[in-house]
Amino acid sequence: MIETFVFARELFLKTTPFVIATIIDKKGSSPREVGASMIVTQNGLAQGTIGGGAIENEAIKKAKSLIEENSSSIEEYILTDNTAASIGMVCGGSNKIFLKYIDTKNKIYLEIFNRLIENYKEKETKLIFDLERLNIFANIDGEIFPNETISGNSFQLLVKDSIKVFVFGGGHVSKAFVKILDFLKLNSVVVEERAEFLEEKDFPNSKRILIGYEDIDTVNITSDDYVCIITRGHTSDSIVLEKVLEKNPQYIGVIGSKRKVALMFKNISDKYSKTMLDKIHSPIGLDIGAQTPEEIAISIAAEIIGEYRAAPLR
């Protein structure tokens, strides 16, 4: 969600009035989660999505009218079963959406955006929606800005960065995979020990780290990160895997045949707990019969989406 506030700050500095529309509650069928946001200007949708379709279209119309009125509101949009069926959904549902008008003459909002952007990486950073006063506040490690009383009817949203995916290896699969990560708007870090496999033209939107795999202890991988090990061979994959296990990331995927996987697990099974080993997805990716680098890349991306969306994987 941090991208929303970065974009909001840019609009504010351009003195372009806008509305931030955020899902604060949902019931039944809905394509986006609570906390999903979009930004609407007088020209229409400018950034993000709350799921598309009829509900988003109605919210955009309402947001544009709020900009003209210089006001905010909370709206509940109901998608009936009949309407849902007409667009291919199994059943209907409802979304409650907070539409917050941002007046670019009020510098308080700029300070809120600045505080969220500057602190979210190091501190627990939340955006508070005061549902009675129709206002927003920044909550930085429990310190509220602006320092005003918030009503009992409020909603807090944790501000986080996009998921970060570490890709070890810069070969054909990695090149195809990182393009998909770019499309999904996920952050990627490509780590290679061969300079010729780490060229900017192949990974223009990624952070690139040139380092020997034996020295990756210095690479800052956190427990929230996702790791895909797609190096040139079994030996380097095994080196990376053992070092990555020590960092305990959210997801670990290792490319390879079933035979290679069995051998790799045999070599490390007595070094790590079952909980740690259960984090390893290998062969990496969903089993869709993928063969080409592009197909394998899609299968890996699908597995990662399933992981961070907590979807059942088959």
From TrEMBL:
Residues of the XdhC Rossmann domain: 165-304
Entry protein name: Putative xanthine dehydrogenase accessory factor
Gene3D superfamilies: NAD(P)-binding Rossmann-like Domain
Database matches in Pfam families: XdhC_C, XdhC_CoxI
Organism: Treponema phagedenis
Boundaries of every XdhC- CoxI domain copy: 16-77
Signal sequence, renumbered to the chain: none
Domain of life (superkingdom): Bacteria
